Amino acid sequence: MTQTSKIRTPIVCVLGHVDHGKTSLLDKIRGSSVVDTEAGAITQHIGATVVPIDAITQMGGALSKLTVSIPGLLFIDTPGHHAFTTLRARGGSLADLAVVVVDVNEGFKPQTIEALQILRNYKTPFVIAANKVDRIHGWRVQENAPFATTFAKQNERVQGIVETKLYELVGKLSDLGFNSERYDRVRDFARNIAIVPTSAITGEGIPDVLMMLIGLAQRYMTENLAMSVEGPGAGTVLEVKEERGLGTTLDVILYDGTLSVGDEIVVAGHTQTITTKVRSLLKPRPMSEILIEEKFERVKSVTAASGIKVAAPKLEGVIAGTPLRVIRGENRDAVVEQVMNEIQDIQVTLAEE
Ligand code: GDP
Belongs to which family (predicted)? Predict the structure, then answer.
């Protein structure tokens, strides 16, 4: 992957009602890449999956002729509201973008509505995957095809059902105060939410979901994403885990800057900050090396966005969902104070819940 641009990878969360297909969608996105290694391998991170831009454009979804500067997309492997709201960053959510999955045959359910409200509160751009289109009676499957290709192959009756179901979703969204349209009819993405018909099982429409996310990042977020790969690292702790031979480790999503072995970092305990030094940075071994005894591969340095395991002394007592910051040169007091403020914020939020 070419890394000439200084734009970091946007972070994506998948939300929606239980059983509407969040896990299947993530599995499909991960799987599609394993097959297509030539297009730039999809890489497994700690708690996340990165899909490079080359892999996305080769899938041939809408907009694939767009010139893009976004290096790819990082999907958080854990779907749902919980991951979205507890993983905080910069006072908001860790996620830059979201996908709301809704079963097109069932329509909106309580958790769909909750997801939309959360995204509105956080002002997070999102697309809607109108999922399980393959369940429409008479649907003819075109494995992994972009929506336009597969839609053209369906008979009039099936096409009519798709349109009706989508209009029901558009109506519901309008009741909730959102303007929306089928994604290929959206003219202004700042005003209209794009709805992409998908099947998480057959892969239909998935290329379009990925391209829509790239489009949203490209148009509305490049300023936020620009240049943030070079500064001192900032991340959020996904999990605190004991690992044999490593002691207490942190699974971290790095959303900003660079994190290296030897860096001094500040993390959050229950009541105070903890300052320590990174001993090792670990990522999952690629599938091809699965026979090697060690579960992890050691790396010297990572840039945003990445999912990485951090080993360091004094990590017992760190809480999941709290920040990790790199101290570099002058910024020590400011960084410690920032982490302290975030601990206080989190305690206030917990007290309110
Ligand atoms: P989650 O609870 O939102 O993560 O939903 P899952 O991904 O676990 O999916 C729930 C069930 O719906 C599983 O049995 C999936 O195989 C099935 N499913 C998910 N997406 C699709 C789809 O697009 N088409 C079909 N036919 N089944 C799906």
Answer: Belongs to the TRAFAC class translation factor GTPase superfamily. Classic translation factor GTPase family. IF-2 subfamily.
